[in-house]
Amino acid sequence: MSTNIVFIGLGNMGLPMAQNLVRAGHAVTGFDLLPASVQQFADGGGLVSDDQAAAIQAADIVITMLPASRHVLGAYLGDAGILAQARPGTLLIDCSTISTEAARQVGRAAEEKGMPMLDAPVSGGTAGATNGTLTFMVGGEESALAAARPCLEIMGKAIFHAGGSGCGQTVKICNNMLLGILMIGTSEAIRLGVANGLDAKVVSDVMAKSSGRNWTLEVYNPCPGVAENVPASRGYTGGFGVDLMLKDLGLAMESAEASGASIPLGALARTLYDMHSKAGSGGLDFSSIYRLQDTPA
């Protein structure tokens, strides 16, 4: 059964997610600030419109995939926001990675308007978005998740209900903090092996079958030439940007301060990614942290 969906945010993640919904037979109208992204979506069979308000008003489901908390707050709240345009009962799904408090703020406002809402950030990278194998970490009511599940299952292979509103964001922040730490540790380990005369692929293969095994080694290796179809083997283009990782590590710091949790490695990772960004690598994939030691101080 076809569902009328509005998808806002056709970036590196949002575009393939929306395209998978189109391929599954849903009527998906896509919106993005970049005309090239909208055109690419249209070329793949997606619907486009010059009237976002009218599209939202006619939608059964509105999905957003935006860069940061301020973008989500701006998209949903205010006189021209999604909550002012959508019909009561419209299912709202935000797949952005934002602060827990921002997610709860929008969730409360949606509830007041009679619109079920989920915060459903994802893990799995651009490959997962393309292949429909993302992991969704969902916060919100069980009934809203049940309604969203058919669409989420098109875009992902694992769907976890973390708890109430904002809980999906909390889990995602924890996950991305660990991912940032793992990428730095993996990069250092490979570079140490190479500095001692080892082949980067050999040391990666050995560690991937040993106690140092982790996702960055097996799926997203940061050393150029070790793995195919990863950002490291195409000049660190595409994928998940350094500045986005830096943003997420900042969210982890905010959460730690608010809850009194201690995250010394998370704080160090944020410092290193900040150095990398300020050295001019903010637009590269976060695995380019492998090259941090090549950057002049």
TrEMBL record:
* EC number assigned by the record: 1.1.1.31
Write down the PROSITE patterns for this protein, in alphabetical order: 3_HYDROXYISOBUT_DH
| Classification via SUPFAM superfamilies | 6-phosphogluconate dehydrogenase C-terminal domain-like, NAD(P)-binding Rossmann-fold domains
Q: Which Pfam families does the entry mention?
A: NAD_binding_11, NAD_binding_2
For this protein, the record's InterPro entries field holds: 3-OH-isobutyrate_DH-rel_CS, 6-PGluconate_DH-like_C_sf, 6PGD_dom2, 6PGDH_NADP-bd, HIBADH, HIBADH-like_NADP-bd, HIBADH-related, NAD(P)-bd_dom_sf
* MF-aspect GO terms: 3-hydroxyisobutyrate dehydrogenase activity; NAD binding; NADP binding
Start and end residues of each 6-phosphogluconate dehydrogenase NADP-binding domain: 5-163
Domain of life here? Bacteria
Top EC class, one word = oxidoreductase
All copies of domain 3-hydroxyisobutyrate dehydrogenase-like NAD-binding, residue ranges: 166-292
Active site positions, chain numbering = K172
Q: Pathway involvement?
A: Amino-acid degradation; L-valine degradation
Alphabetized, the UniProt keywords read:
Branched-chain amino acid catabolism, NAD, Oxidoreductase
Membership in a protein family:
Belongs to the HIBADH-related family.
Q: Any idea what this protein is called?
A: 3-hydroxyisobutyrate dehydrogenase
